[in-house]
């Protein structure tokens, strides 16, 4: 029976922890906030994944770095939009949170009114999400849903997704503690981020397996990051606890939206998670 390789896992974990510690040290020594270093921090899982694969003789293509099934790449890119819409709907259903249709979703950009404006907004979000955002998202995803998903494939779909989700959430701790996403609740925010990432993880695993490519996760992640701000813009509340921990794409509303979608996937049946589904040595 194939099992995760402890030496490769140690290489990945130590490299990831070392890079994270190095950036935290840069932040502390220079006074540059970790939030400002976040674009560089996003590439640490990719570097750790490359070190783990290349030092063990694995080609990146073996862990999902390939084009895969194009139809599912498109599905992955589009899937984030209805999930953000569901997150927004769940947010404004909470007492104390209101929907503000007059909010300016894209400051500085003149948009047409009505439905046309909404379509243009989503078009711009999709374009940005599948290009610039997806590049940065790939910095994370090659590590999480490329190497690590391949390595943990013997654990099966649900357990591997849960483990990766928990690690993914904890990895955010340095920037969360610096005020990212949960500025009023930095310590509690780390726990909330873990909950959110565990809730997100099965859908990421699902699109990667369907697309047979880690690029699906990068597109999904990129569009989600690009559109998630719409929840913050349109769901209005004066209470920080609701604004940051509930009506947020990485708050309870976002976790619930992904959880509901995951339940649908679970009922319909998950694809088999095998190393062969991601690549071949």
From TrEMBL:
Keywords: Membrane, Transmembrane, Transmembrane helix. GO terms for biological process: CAAX-box protein maturation. Pfam families: Rce1-like. GO terms for molecular function: endopeptidase activity. Residues 128-226 form the CAAX prenyl protease 2/Lysostaphin resistance protein A-like domain. Signal peptide: none annotated. The chain crosses the membrane at residues 41-65, 72-94, 114-136, 148-171, 183-207, 214-236, 248-267. The keyword Hydrolase does not apply. InterPro entries: MmRce1-like (IPR042150), Rce1/LyrA-like_dom (IPR003675). This is CAAX prenyl protease 2/Lysostaphin resistance protein A-like domain-containing protein. The lineage of its organism: Archaea, Methanobacteriati, Methanobacteriota, Stenosarchaea group, Halobacteria.
């Amino acid at each position: 029976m194939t099992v995760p390789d402890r030496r490769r896992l140690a290489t990945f974990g130590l490299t990831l922890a070392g890079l994270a510690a190095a950036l935290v040290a840069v932040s502390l020594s220079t006074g540059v906030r970790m939030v400002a270093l976040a674009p560089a921090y996003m590439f640490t899982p990719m570097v750790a994944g490359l070190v783990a694969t290349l030092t063990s003789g694995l080609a990146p293509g073996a862990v999902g770095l390939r084009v895969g099934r194009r139809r599912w790449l498109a599905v992955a890119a589009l899937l984030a939009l209805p999930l953000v819409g569901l997150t927004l709907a769940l947010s404004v259903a909470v007492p104390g949170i209101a929907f503000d249709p007059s909010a300016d979703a894209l400051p500085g950009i003149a948009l047409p009114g009505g439905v046309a404006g909404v379509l243009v907004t989503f078009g711009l979000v999709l374009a940005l999400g599948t290009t610039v955002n997806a590049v940065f998202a790939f910095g994370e995803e090659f590590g999480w849903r490329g190497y690590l998903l391949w390595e943990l494939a013997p654990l099966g779909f649900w357990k591997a997704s849960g483990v990766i989700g928990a690690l993914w959430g904890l990895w955010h701790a340095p920037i969360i503690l610096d005020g990212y996403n949960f500025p009023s609740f930095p310590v509690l925010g780390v726990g909330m981020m873990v909950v959110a990432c565990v809730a997100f993880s099965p859908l990421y695993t699902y699109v990667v397996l369907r697309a047979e490519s880690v690029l699906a996760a990068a597109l999904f992640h990129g569009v989600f990051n690009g559109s998630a701000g719409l929840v913050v813009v349109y769901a209005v509340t004066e209470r920080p606890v609701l604004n940051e921990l509930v009506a947020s794409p990485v708050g309870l509303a976002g976790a619930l939206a992904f959880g509901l979608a995951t339940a649908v996937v679970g009922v319909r049946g998950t694809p088999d998670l095998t190393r062969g589904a991601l690549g071949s040595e």
